[in-house]
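ok so I'm stuck.
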Amino acid sequence: MNERNGFSVAGIPVIGLCVVLAGIGVALLFTADSGAPAGHVIGAVASMFIEAFMLKGFFQVAPNEGQVLQLFGKYAGTVRDAGLRWTNPFYTKQRLSLRVRNFESSKLKVNDSDGNPIEIAAVVVWQVVDTAEAVFCVDDYENYVHIQSESALRQMAQSYPYDSHDDSIPSLRSHGDVINTHLRDEIQTRLGKAGVQVVEARISHLAYAQEIAQAMLQRQQAGAIIAARTRIVEGAVSMVEMALDQLSKRGVVQLDEERKAAMVSNLLVVLCGERGTQPVVNTGTLYSG
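replied:
not stuck anymore, here's the structure
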């Protein structure tokens, strides 16, 4: 079921018609009091009845709002034109907001792709785009949005690790744009049948579960140290290689394999050490005896 335009007309001209009918009814009543035929009385009553019936057809539509019309249980269309409107008095009307709304999910405890328990929550921004689907395809579309959003958040969190030291692997903590896009698409897939469009979805809370928070913090620190050391060693090896290559090309000094090994060892100590090294100046010859 998809939304379609419902029948309605501007309410101001219909108010004028109701005023005319009221005037006719009053005039017929005065003539009836003056001894006019009984038909005038019947006409006055009929005029008043028609006017009262027509008054039931008036309704107001606020900006960014829709009125869902039904005729004896059958969907008759939706009116989005703002202002005073008039429609078939037999129609029943249901007001539906089309404004952008948002909510924050509760904190969910789930396992990430590595099996670590984490706490996660999200803020979802959404709006109704199809009033017919929102009213007739789901029982309570607002409750449906909340439940399905949390379900999608849980599913998304299980697809990524909490943290990753490899930049090519998306993680919940470091790849915000990728994670938020995936979450929005996951929620939109579930809410499409409810006539709801997800404008934005973002992670609002992310942390390890309390029972493993301390242990995971230590693990995270150890992983960060290992990753940093790996980078340092890679850079140091490159610098040593460049130094030996430049010394050889420029002919500054000729080193045998043993001296090269000693120089490499000394350079790696200098480049990879956590503290500043104390240089030892050799005032003798390079080779002993």
